[in-house]
Amino acid sequence: MGVAVLAGSLVVPWSAGASPESAGVAKGAIKWSACPKAEPPFPDPDKRTRCGTVEVPVDWAKPDGPTMKIAVARQQATDPEKRIGALFSNPGGPGASGLDDALYAESPTEGYDKSIRSRFDIIGFDPRGIGRSGKLRCDDKLAGKVPTRPKNAAEFARMRTLNKQLADSCRAGSGPVAEHMDSVSVARDMDAIRAALGEKKISFLGHSYGTLIGRQYARLFPQKVRALALDSAMDPSRPDAGRFLTDGSAAVEGGVRQLADWCAENASCALKGKDVKAVVRGLFARADAGRLFEPGRRGPTRKKVTADQLSGFLTSYLGKWNPQTAAEQLGALNSGKGEVYWTDDTPELAWRTVMCRDYDFRLRDWDHYRELRRQAASAAPHARYNSQALDMILGCQGWPAAPEPEPARATGTLPPVLVVNAKHDLATPLPGARRMAQEFPAGRLAVLDSVDHWLYRKCRSPLPARAIDTYLRTLKTPSPGTVYPSS
Asked: Which of 287, 321, 327, 354 is 20 to 30 A from 263 via CA?
């Protein structure tokens, strides 16, 4: 796979530019106390973890204006004599709570290796408007009325109107923070946490949408970055709706090809001996004609399956990469006998307040939307489109808050930056990860040859996590062109 060329030194000058705005302002040190117990069925936090808050401006452009509190959790390094520093993280979403990284740092499946916990204070925080950092409140009933796949110009216009009303409800229920949940504001909150901790520099591990937060922090505060590891990277070039949907749809199309290859090699595939791509084409043709029905134990039911449902099914099941289950359910749809487990992957409402401020997905009108769908279908003739990407694009139509301008790139130095990404990632496609690695003077990309997303301790191969752990401890990155086998 292609990778960004890495400069030789460990500290590389960031290109000259405007000075950053004032760094994070912390109002006193954090007052730590025991973390609240979890609600069942979740386990209680690790006993060594402590929780606190940091006060920050709601609007960083008005540092003397109204403030809010950001919830922070810390598990201190188990070997203080070998402590390297503080390791911040963000799990993405956008809109996911970030406290769990510290609350459950010792978890054998979701936490960190002993080699990391011994040398770093693990720092988790809920981004503004999320979880314990002022939970966003919107009109959920109104959200359920917004058309998800408008079928004509009238529905498209209604979708825009309802999206604006939904945004107004978020503002009414949550206050001005609803307009300031963009990744730049979160990056500034991170620097306030850093200052409150008394750390000169931080290390950061971002997953999925969290990689954009890490990128923004490095852009604003390069001199405060010790290490930056970005797992399953967003596209930093802020693509418009057309490229965002086309890249995502091409990734789903690649997933269909990977499923076909897997079935050709595995006797356990329920579609063994069949042309998988032809089966998918046939299912879409039947759905378009209104002749595709949900399967049942004895044969097809009377419940129709739409082409949009099929695209959503492919995005969901191929993104999680469970080829055996995907093949079984495609076989059930094809034969009419069996069962299909539909999943609801609709993001939480909070993603709109973040993504519609970070990316400009605005479409001119209904005709622009139809052209977008045609472009996606051209890139993905078997999958039609990436349903998650289209959800995000349509969710921003009519959203009243305009996208935030790109922050000025500060002058400073950065260490090598490590980006890891699956070759066939449906949520954060590889082209965007390449651009993320190229964003940094010393950026390096390592690729896992699989269909996957979130590679740190959540994929079949242990190699990406090992590479990240080694990098966090030593700043050593994998060799140029590194491609890890899938397992």
From this structure: 287
The band of 254, judged by pLDDT with boundaries at 50, 70 and 90, is very high
Between β-strands 417-424 and 33-34, what pairing exists: parallel, antiparallel or unpaired? unpaired
Neighbours of 192 (CB within 10 A): 21
Rounded Cα gap, residues 118 and 265, in angstroms: 43
d(CA 344, CA 346): 6
CA distance 295 to 76: 53
φ, ψ at 283 (rounded to 5°)? -65, -40
Cβ neighbours of 144 (radius 10 Å): 9
pLDDT, residue 345, reads 62
Task: Report the distance separating Cα 390 and Cα 374, nearest Å.
Answer: 13
pLDDT tens string 10-47: 333 333 333 334 445 555 689 999 999 888 888 888 88
Render pLDDT for 186-229 as a digit per residue (tens, 0 to 9).
Answer: 999 999 999 999 999 999 999 999 999 999 999 999 999 999 99
Integer Rg of the chain from CA: 23
Structure token digits, residue 130: 């999320």
- What does the DSSP 8-state code read for residue 94? T
Close Cβ partners of 293 (under 8 Å, ≥ 6 residues apart): 300, 301, 302, 303, 304, 305, 336
Q: Domains of the chain, with CATH numbers?
A: 12-134+184-236+413-484 (3.40.50.1820), 137-180+239-405 (no CATH)
Give the mean pLDDT of 299-324: 93
Cα separation, 471 vs 188, whole angstroms: 24
The DSSP-derived string for 441-467 is TTEEEEEEEEE-S--SSSSS-SHHHHH
Length reported for the chain:
487
User: Which phi and psi (to 5°) does residue 51 adopt?
Assistant: -120, 155
How far apart (Å, rounded) are the C-alpha atoms in residues 314 and 325?
12
Please answer whether residues 21 and 57 qualify as being in contact, where contact means their C-beta atoms are separated by less than 8 angstroms: no
Query: For residues 262 and 269, what is the distance between their CA atoms, to the nearest angstrom?
Result: 8
CB atoms within 10 A of CB 37: 10
Phi/psi at 120 (5° precision): -130, 145
Are the C-beta atoms of residues 91 and 100 closer than 8 Å to each other? yes
